[in-house]
Amino acid sequence: MRIAKEREAELTVLHVDLYQENQGVTRAELKRAVESVFGPLERTRYVVRRGFLVEETILEEIAADDADVVVLGSKQAGRWRTMLRRFLDDPDIETYLRQKLDCTVITVRADE
C-alpha cells in the first residue's frame, strides 16, 4: 500500500484460490478481510483467481493487468524460489522475474 501511495498508483490485491484446496474465497470476502485490517483503501482493485499453481496464476494476472510494479511478500518470494529450484540449479528470483516480466519487482517483509 505504501508503494502504491508513493507512486500515486492503483493497487490490485490478488488472492490465488488453488483448485486443489478450493477455499471458495470471493472478491467480497477478500475486500472485507483487507479492509478489516487496513480500513477502506482508495484506488484499490480486489481480484480472486483460481489456479493450480500460485506462481503461474500470479504471472497470468500480472500479464493481464499490464502491471508496472509487482510487490511480493517475502513468504511468496520463498515459494517462487522453491518452484524455480525444480527447474534451475541456483535460481535468482529477482533476475528470473525481471526476465519474464516487463515491470519492476519488489520483495517486502510483512513488517515493511
Condensed summary:
With 112 residues, the chain is an alpha/beta fold. The chain has five helices and four strands, in the order αβαβαβααβ.
Give an overview in words.
There is one protein chain. With 112 residues, this protein is an alpha/beta fold. It has helices at 2-6, 27-38, 54-65, 74-85, 93-100, and strands spanning 11-18, 44-51, 69-73, 104-108. The longest helix is centred in the first third of the chain and has 12 residues, at 27-38. It is globular and about 35 Å long. The N and C termini lie close together (10 Å).
Quaternary organisation: single chain
Name the helix and strand elements from N-terminus to C-terminus, one letter apiece.
Answer: HEHEHEHHE
* Count of individual helical segments: 5
The CATH superfamily is known as HUPs
First and last CA, distance = 10 Å
Tell me, rounded to a whole number, the average pLDDT: 76
List segments where confidence is low: pLDDT < 50 over at least 5 consecutive residues.
Answer: none
Shape: globular
Strand order of the largest sheet: 1-2
